[in-house]
Design brief:
Blueprint (H helix, E strand, L loop, with lengths): L1 E4 L11 H5 L6 E5 L4 H11 L2 E5 L10 E5 L10 E4 L3 E2 L13 E4 L10 E3 L21 E5 L7 H12 L4 E5 L13 E3 L10 E4 L8 H9 L3 E4 L16 E3 L3 H10 L9 H15 L2 E4 L3 E5 L4 E5 L10 H14 L4 H23 L4 H11 L1
Parallel strand pairs: 1-6, 2-3, 2-4, 4-5, 5-7, 8-17, 9-10, 9-12, 10-11, 12-13, 13-14, 14-15
Antiparallel strand pairs: 1-8, 15-16, 16-17
Helix pairs in contact: 3-7, 3-9, 7-8, 8-9
């Protein structure tokens, strides 16, 4: 885990040339504003085949490689972004991440002054099963959702829960069209007592959903993942720190509008504040899904830099919901399950991209079990 900050911090005089040359040969323009121009000139000299370009005179050229030193390029995507000191959370803003390329920095502290941290795969702490564990000890997950129109989403979430370690999975639905090809998946009616499950994933493919069904899930006392079509019911509830909300950017904007809250997507400072405010108001964990995933329970903010476009495929979010629910069903607390679930989802996505290039959610699920 690496600390992030919202403003500049001091950088020791360290050459970054070797790190950059691991990824790119040829000419590189190092672009910098006035405040870091001397450090940028030193980097340019160390790179060899390079030029230092003041940001105020920068013009993008087709096919050129750029290293943005302590700045963001106004009209081009950088191949590299060098942060003078501790990594800045601004680089992982959903609207800005793609333009930063490979992000390099040299943290000067183990602690973030803004309580924001960049997650790494080494932060994965998912519960490990003992040799004596079996289906009744690995957790029974209820996936509440599905409709006559959207039959696939709950099935993907259910299957992902199995591959993330769940021992039993039930789809709770009122749709007669949902019949999973996996004979291990149980189908149950909406009248089922949800308090008998170890964790709940609610919302995948739910269509219009059911206010009554949502209240039943909340009152069950079970830890739950709230995703997709169930997010519309969030504004009228508080979740006593037992829920994980997993909106993508569009769902997040709608949810914040319904709550009359600022989504804060224009800066890292405002986004971290908005996510903390949402988590605190609803007493839950929030997982904002984008190329960089933001996670908070209202306190510390965690960012996972996924930057994997292959994960942007139909059903990927349903897979994440099933994973997080399975981890909670195995005994993890919501924040820990959210962090481990995001890391597991991203690890599976990278492996699937290596194996298939681009893929569907079904191939992604196959990699979940291997990465678990």
């Amino acid at each position: 885990m690496e600390p992030l900050c919202l403003s500049d911090t001091a950088l020791p005089q360290v050459s970054l040339a070797a790190s950059i040359r691991k990824h790119a040969d040829g000419h590189i323009d190092v672009v910098s504003g006035d405040e870091h121009i001397e450090q940028a000139r030193m980097l340019s000299a160390a790179l060899g085949d390079s030029a230092c370009v003041p940001l105020k005179s920068f013009e993008s050229k087709d096919g050129a490689l750029y290293c943005a030193f302590g700045c963001f390029l106004p009209s081009a995507a950088a191949s590299f972004t060098v942060i003078p000191g501790m990594r800045k959370a601004e680089c992982y803003l959903p609207s800005r991440r793609a333009g930063c390329g490979i992000i390099l920095s040299y943290p000067s502290s183990d602690a973030s002054p803004d309580d924001i941290y960049l997650l790494a795969d080494s932060d994965y702490r998912a519960v490990r099963f003992s040799l004596s564990d079996y289906k009744n000890t690995r957790g029974h997950i209820a996936v509440v959702g599905g409709s006559d129109r959207y039959t696939g989403a709950p099935r993907l979430a259910a299957r992902a829960a199995f591959f993330a370690g769940a021992g039993l999975v039930t789809i709770v639905t009122d749709s007669e069209r949902i019949r999973d090809s996996n004979p291990a998946v149980i189908i149950a009616p909406p009248s089922s007592d949800l308090s008998g499950y170890d964790a709940i994933a609610i919302g995948p493919g739910w269509g219009e959903g059911s206010p009554c069904g949502f209240r039943s899930a909340v009152s069950s006392g079970r830890n739950m993942v709230i995703d997709a079509d169930a997010l519309r019911f969030v504004p009228s509830h508080r979740f006593s720190h037992r829920a994980v909300l997993t909106p993508h950017l569009g769902e997040y904007r709608r949810l914040m509008a319904d709550l009359s809250m600022d989504p804060g997507l224009d800066s890292a400072r405002s986004l971290s504040a908005s996510l903390r405010a949402l988590a605190s108001a609803a007493e839950c964990v929030v997982v904002l899904k984008s190329s960089a995933v933001w996670i908070t329970d209202g306190g510390t903010v965690y960012v996972y830099d996924g930057a994997n476009p292959s994960l942007g495929v139909a059903g990927s979010g349903d897979v994440l919901s099933g994973i997080i629910a399975a981890l909670m069903g195995a005994g993890e607390e919501p924040l820990r399950a959210a962090i481990d679930g995001v890391i597991l989802h991203q690890r599976a996505g990278r492996k699937a991209m290596e194996d298939y290039g681009f893929y569907s959610a079904e191939e992604l699920i196959l990699e979940v079990g291997k990465a678990r």
